[in-house]
Amino acid sequence: MRHYLLHGLAYLLALSSAALLATEIRADEGLEVRIGYLAWEPERGPLLSNVIPEPEDAGLRGAELAITDSNSTGRFLKHHYQLDANPSPTPEALLARARALHEQGLRLFVVNAPAEQVLQLADALPDSLLLNAGSPADELRGEQCRANLLHSLPNRAMLADALAQFLAMRRWQRWLLVTGHTPDDLAYAAALRRAAGRFGAKIVEEKPWTFDNDQRRSAQAEMPLFTQASEYDVVLVADERGDFGEYLPYNTWYPRPVAGTQGLTPTGWHKTVETYGAAQLQKRFEALAGRWMNDRDFAAWLAVRSIASAVTRLKSVDAGAIRTLALSSELPLDGFKGRKLSYRDWDGQLRQPIPLVHPRALVSTSPQDGFLHPVSELDSLGFDRPESTCRRFATTD
Asked: Core-most of 56, 169, 359, 390, by most CB within 10 Å?
């Protein structure tokens, strides 16, 4: 009997040693985390103003910094992060590249593209997890939502609500709304109308911008007449391309502030955000890119860091498991905004405070004090659970 007990003990010790050795081998091999970066930016066309253009590498540089940050912490766990960056010249090339990376085994992607291409990619890669860091389109979080699509960039509804809360606190409740003619301008204007209804503002008049001449020569003459209307407290402008909005400040009929896409602007990120450790993030980015970090850069940084935080917790690159953790309250995600950030489980949108800035200063941050919510004050920005029209998100296909 003693012989059998000793033999069994030796057998168990051998199994334990083998298991320990296998664990050590796997630990030595480490975990490779490949993330695809898919980007396509359509031609903006000629602008009527001399607005400073968006950097061509907006978004990409933020993702690269996040890879560096993730490798700095990941090396202790033997996790190695790699970014497969693939800006594409056409939508067709974007889709082809995504499929090629998918065939190589990639299932984690950061996307910087217009809404139409984001949806195309999400439908083409149903077993993958995509993080949208480039499109603010509300429909991607609503009727066109996808179960495999999360959003690190704020949508237009969040931006408009952030601005409307600030204007309500200032009691600037009479709005003159000036809108451009592009689909993006019309979408931004729709978000402002929704925000006006939510926070008790009155749009005294809407004026579409129809001029096509050079405003550098005629703004001083035309803008005061164009903004003549019933008395208003603030001029809200929807001009995402920057065709005319830059010429509204100081040229309005009444001496009133300008806000929206120009003037006082709600945004996901800005150079003037410096508290809660943000200054260090800004410095690291500037050392890498040689320019300021913008909202697309920050959204891409957040997208990669969301994946890395989940991988650290799970020790796995499984897209489904990462999605499940991201939509729970257990994902440790710090965005240098003074609050823990989390993804909404009804539409995949990242909850986050919204800075309100002008080009050289941070004015305020929403949600504003006093705007309460039973779950999170951050859910006072954008589409709350009862308002959501997303019906494809609760379960994956």
From this structure: 390
Claim to verify: residue 164 and residue 142 sit in the same structural domain: no
| Least confidently predicted of 52-66, 142-156, 218-232, 315-329 | 218-232
Q: Are residues 217 and 73 in the same domain?
A: no
Number of compact structural domains in the chain: 2
Q: Per the domain annotation, does 23 fall within a domain?
A: no
Q: What percent of the chain has pLDDT over 70?
A: 88
- Please state, as a whole number, how many other Cβ atoms lie within 10 Å of the Cβ of residue 64: 21
Length of the chain in terms of residues written: 397
Flag whether 138 is in a domain.
Answer: yes
164 shares a domain with 203: yes
User: Could you identify the residue written with the tokens 């164009």?
Assistant: 226
Angle CA 375–279–237, to nearest 5 = 65
Whether 201 contacts 193, CB under 8 Å: no
Domain that holds residue 233: 158-266
- pLDDT, residue 85, reads 95
CATH number at residue 112: 3.40.50.2300
Tokens of 384: 């709350």
Do the beta carbons of residue 299 and residue 276 sit within 8 Å? no
**C-alpha pair distances (Å), 33 with each of 97, 135, 231:** 18, 25, 57
Pick the last residue of a domain from 238, 266, 294. Answer: 266
Distance (Å, rounded) from C-alpha 264 to C-alpha 377? 22
Asked whether the whole model's pTM tops 0.85, one would answer yes
Check: CB of residue 237 under 8 Å from CB of residue 261. Answer: yes
- Say if residues 235 and 178 touch (Cβ distance below 8 Å): yes
Which has the closest alpha carbon to 84: 62, 103, 60?
A: 60
H or E element in which residue 240 lies = none
